[in-house]
């Protein structure tokens, strides 16, 4: 009889401990999932803000180009008026004696050349402004778009409560403070841990980290660092805009 009572008490204690560990780890799981989705949305918010800056860059570059071409166009119109004045009321021989014919020949050749170059200036300024505006519209509508996540990506970022049942048993029933909990390495210790990683058994460090956190690193992080930033690297939208102006 005492043996049965002892066994019953031990079973009750084990059941209570398992239930407590289960509830504790499930609460951690739900809390981590909330952080997971929050991190996912924060990343897209930052990406949307960055894309908004890129779109603003395109608009600023287009306004700069159009303003410069408008200045050239206005100067061309002023010189058009001056040339027409030299052709009509201000031409040689109207307000005084007519000069020799060879001087008039040079005069009219220069006036005609000036009109030809002014026509070219006006056409190129109009074409450059139109090309810049059309290129900006192309980039803003096709290339430099806001990164809006699709429903499939949103579903991939979230987790349901019953997905906790698919985790490892060691993560579901991990006893708090008894089993070593994972900790993030500080930057000064990362190099030392890389040197010690070869001496550890494969998978030993991964077992200390919950599987749902490992899945998040594989699915969402895609590596801890971004692409290397070089001295000659420029954002892609600048390269696309430069290609449109060539």
Can you walk through the features of this model?
By secondary structure, the protein is mainly alpha-helical. Helices cover 72% and strands 0% of the residues. Helix 1 runs antiparallel to helix 2, helix 1 runs parallel beside helix 7 and helix 2 runs antiparallel to helix 8. The longest helix has 86 residues. It starts with a helix and ends with a helix.
What's the topology here?
Layout lengths: L1 H86 L13 H43 L7 H7 L11 H4 L14 H11 L6 H5 L2 H11 L14 H10 L1
Helix pairs in contact: 1-2, 1-7, 2-8
On the 0-100 scale, what is the average pLDDT?
Answer: 76
Count the DSSP helices.
Answer: 8
Shape: rod-shaped
Considering DSSP H and I runs of 4 or more, what fraction of the residues is helical?
Answer: over 70%
Relative strand content? under 5%
Termini gap: 95 Å
Extract low-pLDDT stretches.
185-190, 223-231
From N to C, what is the helix and strand string?
HHHHHHHH
Largest sheet entry: none
Q: How many domain modules?
A: 1
Structural class given helices, strands, pairing? mainly alpha
User: In total, how many beta strands?
Assistant: 0
Radius of gyration: 37 Å
Keywords: Membrane, Transmembrane, Transmembrane helix
